[in-house]
Amino acid sequence: MPIPPNRDAAVDVDGLNFAYGRYQAVKDVSLKALRGEVFALLGTNGAGKTTSLELIQGYRRPDAGHIRVLGLDPFRQRRSLRRRTGFMLQEAGFLTEMTVRETIELWDSISGRRDSVDRVMDRVDLAGRADVRLDQLSGGEKRRLDIALAVWGGPELVVLDEPTTGLDPESRRRLWSLVDDLRAAGTTIILTTHYLEEAEALADRLAIMHEGRVAVSGTLREVLEAHPATISARLPSSLADDLPALSGSTTVAAPGGADDSDTRALRVETSALQADLTVLLEWADRRGVPLSGLHAQPATLESLFHTIRTRSERLTAEAMEAADQGAQDTQGAHGTDGDGARSGDGGGDGSEDGGDGRQGAGHGAENDVEGVSAR
Ligand SMILES: Nc1ncnc2c1ncn2[C@@H]1O[C@H](COP(=O)(O)OP(=O)(O)OP(=O)(O)O)[C@@H](O)[C@H]1O
């Protein structure tokens, strides 16, 4: 069923699903990046970020769900989007015997967008490398060339997949300022990153993916305020069972390290940081308990990652336990062969590009040599 174009959203994704063969890499993903904002897609390794970007770019056909990019269907209308969008993928490659300048000039004719080679090289700090062959560029320089091609011609939407991976601090800072300039000019930017401080510095809105799903999304403030703060400290083992009642969830565990047998690591996840901290400090004061390494802080993206990962591990453990229990209950009635329902990273692709299909240009739908840099 066609969905009406959403004028306010540059990218509008709803209920997206995609499987590589039997391996479900993207599960019911919904996202919205508004025009003129920076949207950061974060997540654990293998969470499905790149696959989601490839779906947004029209390189793959979704198994289910809807995607609108600048009001169009990226899979069916990729040609129409070509001039309006600039994409960059991880580890994009080029014809290695070409120079930086030749590559950008080639891009001028392929992309259908117009720009100045010198201006763009300057923007990504490649001005001094114009005549260098691609196979002589460093990893960071190649990355900057990928970025140059993505922003070439000032597209309305720029998609950057891990743009600062492998960049030195100065180049990273320059990229951040380029992103700020693009946003100021009204460009919508979607980027993936493993650097949380990058998302904090740049993103108007973000989503964190884990195991194919969006675990949280919103503005940075919304996302952090919706998650508990953390109190951590060490306390003498003898008092671990004597803690006061706190509203947050409390865990007490043996700390790592060799000589800590007399202490326990206390961790409290709480939505009432001030109240719980007060109770804890008054208790420690009354009992004369030293709370060494006391640390209290509101949720951060890092603590949020920790929460998402541990929650998921706990659910997986519970599910496995339930499955074991179920198997025991039915033992005797059925055979014992495991069926291997989940096939891991399943070779067989099932998507129309067959095999890999994630290699930028020339894949997917109508198969213009578009996309990011050819690889
Ligand atoms: N061509 C493919 N065939 C089969 N499985 C694939 C293919 N590409 C990716 N996958 C699997 O799909 C899952 C999602 O991969 P994806 O690259 O989208 O994750 P990601 O979030 O970008 O990961 P990372 O942060 O590690 O780059 C992973 O488990 C990956 O192994």
From TrEMBL:
GO terms for molecular function: ATP binding. It comes from the Bacteria. It is a peripheral membrane protein. Residues 11-236 form the ABC transporter domain. Residues 322-334 have a biased composition (Low complexity). It holds the Pfam family ABC_tran. Gene3D superfamilies: P-loop containing nucleotide triphosphate hydrolases (3.40.50.300). SMART domains: AAA. Residues 320-375 are annotated as: Disordered. PROSITE patterns: ABC_TRANSPORTER_1, ABC_TRANSPORTER_2. Keywords: Antibiotic resistance, ATP-binding, Nucleotide-binding, Transport. It is found in: Cell membrane. InterPro entries: AAA+_ATPase, ABC_transporter-like_ATP-bd, ABC_transporter-like_CS, ABC_transporter_ATP-binding, P-loop_NTPase. This is ABC transporter ATP-binding protein. The lineage of its organism: Bacteria, Bacillati, Actinomycetota, Actinomycetes, Streptosporangiales.
